[in-house]
Prior knowledge:
Residues 1-67 form the Inner membrane protein YgaP-like transmembrane domain. Helices cover 62% and strands 0% of the residues. By secondary structure, the chain is an all-alpha fold.
Amino acid sequence: MNTNIGKLDKVIRLSIALIIGLLYLLNIITGTVAIVLGVIGASMLITSLVGICPLYSPLGINTCKKQKA
């Protein structure tokens, strides 16, 4: 599978994941909201580290710059 997440997209996803983690650690979010945001944050962290977003492929989105052959 080809990378479909660009550098800016990775930074934004990683930042959101870190903010969600920080909010959880500071007990600003709790309960069901913390679980839902935790799942979202974990998926953003994983996709930013791997560089592939499974939702981008069916939608035809690619934020990664094309590589020269």
